[in-house]
Amino acid sequence: LSLKFGDIGNLKGLVIRFLLTTTYYQLSVQNWFSLHRLQLLYNHSIQATFNATRIYAPASYSYHCEHVSSLQRYDALLIPSSANDLSKLWEVTFIDFQIQGFNIQEGHFAYAKDCESFFSPAILMGLVMSLILLLVLAYALHMLIHLKSLERHYECKASPAYFGQMKDSDMGDEKEPLRSSGNESYELRNQQFCKIYI
Predict the structure, then answer these.
(1) Which stretches of the chain score pLDDT less than 70?
(2) Domain of 147?
(3) Count of other CB atoms within 10 angstroms of residue 51
(4) Which residues form the V-type proton ATPase subunit S1 luminal domain (predicted)?
(5) Cα angle value 105/94/9 (rounded, 5°)
């Protein structure tokens, strides 16, 4: 696929050439196209060549990317073909780039496969938040599992300090104190009390 710009300043006959290939993949059961190489031509000769990386889509789709560039700040999808090539002297950037090499119908692009990587900033933030929530849940489950059981630490003892009622049938005699050496005292009875250890 060639884009011919003609003469631009000192550049005579500027042409940007996209070399596209198509391949059939059995796993996806369909053809995929990829941008294999980008060439810059002027003065009737190839002046710069860039190898394209990660620019591909199903053959029935188009490919779209906000920036396709040789610059690192735009993720450098275009790599100079060799260190000795003149391409290292060029900086190429396409903005709002969309291409489709095959199965074009009515002169319109098909549905676009976007270049946005799987680990975009929004997805990374969602993964980090999910990890934090997962750690909080794991900590809560850990605390619940290691919570001591009340049945194992439930101890009952007898208390000697309970003032119980007398078993006398007469109500008047029920509250009558026991006389011993001139001191008043009441009958002490035992009642169980419990301690809970947590």
Answers:
(1) 83-84, 116-120, 148-198
(2) 118-154
(3) 16
(4) 1-102
(5) 110
Closest CA to 47 of 3, 11, 87: 87
Q: Using one digit for the tens of pLDDT, what is the confidence trace for 73-128?
A: 888 889 888 766 777 888 899 999 999 878 788 878 888 888 865 566 777 888 89
Please choose, from the candidates 53, 21, 16, the residue with its C-alpha nearest in 3D space to the C-alpha of residue 34.
Answer: 21
* Torsion angles phi and psi, residue 93, rounded to 5: -140, 125
Decide if 163 contacts 177 (C-beta within 8 A). Answer: no
The answer to whether 42 and 2 are in contact (CB under 8 A) is no
Q: State which of 86, 116, 146 marks the end of a domain.
A: 116
Judged by DSSP in three states, 129 sits in helix
Are both 111 and 124 inside the same structural domain? no
The candidate with the shortest Cα–Cα distance to 49, out of 8, 12, 81, 75, is 81
Among residues 63, 98, 116, which one ends one of the domains? 116
Question: Are the C-beta atoms of 93 and 74 separated by less than 8 Å?
Answer: yes
